[in-house]
Design goal:
alpha/beta; Rossmann fold; 2 domains; 7-stranded mixed β-sheet; 14 helices; 14 strands; globular
């Protein structure tokens, strides 16, 4: 049965959702048939007021995520769902199950790895059988990291005829103007609270959490344990600390990519390792300040890791801190500030023989709210319009395995330029 809409955007009234709306309306195909969906008609009509007469404005669909009938009707009528109304563990299972049932491809920007694992265990094989692609973590975290790693692994194979044994990515945030607004959005707060409340399996500290029990999860955990440390990284000549805001997210996603690629015969190395970190120029202009910022970041993340691995009562300390921020739905950094933060990923790879390869991705716009919006929008457009290729897999997959190498052109459209040194 033909779908009414090619793309449906859920969560358009949030900080990231508004930017995704802008991107689709201004940069999507002129003949894109799409809609925005939510429970508040007034807010949705306000969103339609953005932009000018040249933009391709969508229709509105009233769909309260707490109303199963409305949600199912929304999913039944669309080819691709871009779901930006996190957190996801609260209502995401029903949406994913119905996307699989109605053969609707799906993209989100969630970071709740405990929930993603549960969905993989319950629905991966069914989604694969149905020929559906369910792609979580398709924003700044973890799509560019995952795509850059996958492209490097393939390049090592093409250039050296070897597998890749290790990848390290160092991220840098850069201020490109004087406008500063470091506030966090309500959606991000909700994701953190969901992790604190719902992670009963220790996924926060288990980098093998998105892998099946049939593989060597113990060995993978040992090789890829996140080290919350501050150090001077000679590859980039800078002090580095844990990647922000979610140092626990990219690692399991990229390890799942390695597993799925191995299943498909496009193997990463048997002992493949992945790690990431970030430099501290965003927090201080001088070396002493950067060293101190790295130390503080390492301490805070190490403490969070210990709390997540300890008695659950300790998690209330973090929840109280989040609640005290008083951030309401739709709030976050000002839109004017988002254009003045850019970022860069620098990748350092080691082939099985020890030979090295480097690559980078340079991106425009705030990673969490502007770049993420553009990336997720392009992922949705790719699922709707691009011809499926052999390196794109069905199931509950990762960005690189669901979208494949051809997505690099859309990633560049989203403002992320990839190059090999």
């Amino acid at each position: 049965m033909a779908k009414k809409f090619q793309v449906t955007l859920v969560g358009a009234s949030g900080v990231t959702g508004r930017n995704a709306y802008d991107y689709l309306a201004e940069n999507g195909p002129a003949d894109l048939i799409w809609n925005i969906a939510g429970r508040n008609e007034h807010k949705l009509k306000q969103i339609l007021g953005r932009g000018d007469e040249t933009w391709n404005k969508p229709e509105i669909t009233i769909a309260d995520l707490g109303n199963p009938d409305q949600v199912e009707a929304m999913i039944r009528n669309t080819k691709v769902l871009i779901h930006l109304a996190g957190p996801y563990a609260e209502h995401g299972e029903f949406i994913i199950a119905k996307c699989i049932e109605h053969k609707t491809d799906y993209v989100d920007i969630g970071g709740e790895t405990f929930f993603i694992r549960e969905m993989i265990l319950k629905y991966h094989e069914r989604a694969r059988e149905q020929g559906v692609r369910i792609i979580p973590t398709a924003g700044y975290e973890s799509l560019p990291f995952d795509m850059l790693t996958m492209m490097t692994v393939r390049r090592i194979k093409d250039v050296y005829n070897e597998t890749c044994s290790a990848v390290k990515i160092v991220t840098s945030f850069h201020r490109s103007g004087s406008v500063r607004d470091n506030r966090i959005s309500a959606g991000s707060i909700g994701t953190m609270r969901n992790i604190l409340a719902g992670d009963h399996i220790g996924a926060f500290n288990d980098m093998s959490c998105l892998l099946p029990d049939s593989c060597d999860r113990k060995g993978i955990r040992r090789r890829n344990k996140v080290k919350y440390v501050a150090r001077y990284d000679q590859d980039v000549n800078a002090y580095t600390g844990p990647l922000q805001p979610a140092p626990f997210l990219n690692v399991p996603v990229i390890l799942r990519s390695a597993y799925l690629q191995n299943e498909a015969g496009r193997g990463y190395g048997d002992q493949f390792r992945y790690s990431d970190s970030m430099t501290m120029e965003f927090y201080s202009r001088n070396e002493a300040g950067q060293r101190e910022a790295a130390r503080k970041s390492a301490f805070k993340n190490r403490l969070t890791s210990m709390i997540m691995g300890g008695p659950r009562i300790f998690r209330s300390l973090i929840r109280q801190r989040l609640d005290s921020m008083g951030i309401r739905a739709g709030e976050g950094p000002s839109e004017g500030s988002l254009h003045f933060v850019d970022y860069e990923l620098r990748l350092f790879a080691t082939a099985s023989s020890g030979r090295k390869m480097t690559a980078r991705a340079s991106a425009r716009g705030h990673p969490g709210y502007l770049s993420t919006a553009r990336i997720a929008a392009e992922a949705g457009l790719a699922l709707s319009f691009d011809k499926r290729r052999d390196d794109q897999q069905y199931g509950i997959v990762t960005p690189s395995t669901g979208l494949g190498e051809s997505f690099i052109h859309r990633l560049e459209n989203a403002g992320v330029e990839v190059s090999f040194d």
